[in-house]
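re: ur msg from earlier - yeah i can do the phenylalanine complex, just paste it... oh wait u already did. ok heres what im feeding in:
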Amino acid sequence: MEKEYEKRNIEIEKEIKKDLEKIVTLNDLVVTKAKYLGKNGCITELTKNMKDLSPEEKALTGRFATEIRNIANTLFMEKETKLKEEALNKKLQEETIDITLPSCKIKKGSIHPFNKIVTEIEDLFVSMGYDVLDGPELETDEYCFQRLNIPLGHPVRDTQDSFYVDVDYLLRTQTSSVQARTMEANKEKGPIRMICPGKTYRRDDDATHSHQFGQFEGLVIDEHITLADLKGTLEVMARKLLGEKTNVRFRPSYFPFTEPSVEVDVSCFKCNGKGCSLCKNTGWIELLGAGMVHPNVLKSNGYDPNKYTGFAFGTGIDRLAMMKYNIPDIRLMYTNDIRFLKQFDRKELK
Ligand code: PHE
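and the outut:
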């Protein structure tokens, strides 16, 4: 009896192997596997009538059926692995990339001249220990004017007549509003060193003025700050941004939030002061407005003017970029013409 079962198993194994040789796809494999191990497969059939058998026969049938089932499973599994491996190799072969082919060109962007200047300014002032701060563009009349010593009805408002949203809110006309906000937010009322680059808005539009433009403000407050500190700081800034030979001069001026106020000129960095079209033959270029923070401004933002003094300056970012890169029209900064922007390649970034 046992011999017979053994022989039958050998027979089935042989048959499976023969079938497997013919198989080329995973689909064929599934079909063939069903022929042996499926619900009506011949190996499954072996144990169909177990209940009618004597206990000895039952044990024998069971043992040999399990044996051949295990053998069959192993054979099918091996074949499946082999087929999958072959399929994968074929796929890899088909998908090989020819790395000698020329690649498609990726268009590379460049940093906008506005942002290049901002990055340079930020790096410079951070290296001198300043914080870089931000303020709201939709600002209240209070922070844009009143806290800066410009009460309601002050004539200086005429020069900054701008985009009011209602009587209290307007698009800020100057980043000086951040001076007031920074002083107010400083709870200890201690020293401040900050710059705040950002967008500003005025009702202007011509080749050198846009309704939206960038300004950055600088504010330093501490004990014993003098006009000499302001001059030294602006000299460092001018030399770093416009060239080591740049000189700085102060002219008396007027801003309601600084006293004394100055207009700051730099020697023309194109002609070194000899006179050219950029400086309109004067040798000097107007750079920014500045001054010592007015005691009223210190007071209205919680600082004691008897203890603290400070300086502030503010300038147009677009103006700086236009001077530095010889850009003739401010509108070029905002119309995003790719031919214009392409000239400011990344390489130029220091
Ligand atoms: N806010 C002034 C302007 O927009 C510039 C300025 C800033 C002047 C700080 C003095 C001090 O013209």
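cool cool. DSSP finds eleven helices and nine strands in the chain. ping me if u need the other ligands too
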